[in-house]
Amino acid sequence: MSIQNAIGPGLAPKEFMQGYLEALALVERLHRLLLDVIKDEFERVGVLEINAVQALLLFNIGENEVTAGELKSRGYYQGSNVSYNLKKLVEMGYMHHERCEIDRRSVRVRLTQKGREIREVVSELFARHAEGLESRGVLDFGGLDDITTSLRRVERFWSDQIRYIY
């Protein structure tokens, strides 16, 4: 069943609704495609030990020291078990972990040198993509800014829907 068929007639004009559903499907496809692109890059450079979600975790943590809760609240990891992935990354030597001084139940993590190397692979991949998008005329800064602004508006709208539900 397609997403269009799952939602019957509503309050929004038909054309807007179709565009909205198409945008939702595109966001989902882009997320999956991003993970596939990262996986493909790792296969190309011979990194087979970690998966794309774990690599994206390392990239997004960067030089920060964070808790699993902080990563979940950033919302990058829908559909993945952040705690499990963090545990595996610690076991494989990509991250350090230590109990939080204030709340002993909480564990803070940061990248090891091995984790920083993986982060650099992802960073270089994204830099090549950014350069390619711009140099090939796929997207310029103005277009990128428009996309980002629009996505932030949708993010804010959805967040407000959740907050005001109760």
Automatic annotation (TrEMBL):
<dbReference type="InterPro" id="IPR039422">
    <property type="entry name" value="MarR/SlyA-like"/>
</dbReference>
<protein>
    <submittedName>
        <fullName>MarR family transcriptional regulator</fullName>
    </submittedName>
</protein>
<dbReference type="InterPro" id="IPR036390">
    <property type="entry name" value="WH_DNA-bd_sf"/>
</dbReference>
<dbReference type="InterPro" id="IPR036388">
    <property type="entry name" value="WH-like_DNA-bd_sf"/>
</dbReference>
<dbReference type="GO" id="GO:0003700">
    <property type="term" value="F:DNA-binding transcription factor activity"/>
</dbReference>
<feature type="domain" description="HTH marR-type">
    <location>
        <begin position="20"/>
        <end position="156"/>
    </location>
</feature>
<dbReference type="GO" id="GO:0006950">
    <property type="term" value="P:response to stress"/>
</dbReference>
<dbReference type="InterPro" id="IPR000835">
    <property type="entry name" value="HTH_MarR-typ"/>
</dbReference>
<dbReference type="Pfam" id="PF13463">
    <property type="entry name" value="HTH_27"/>
</dbReference>
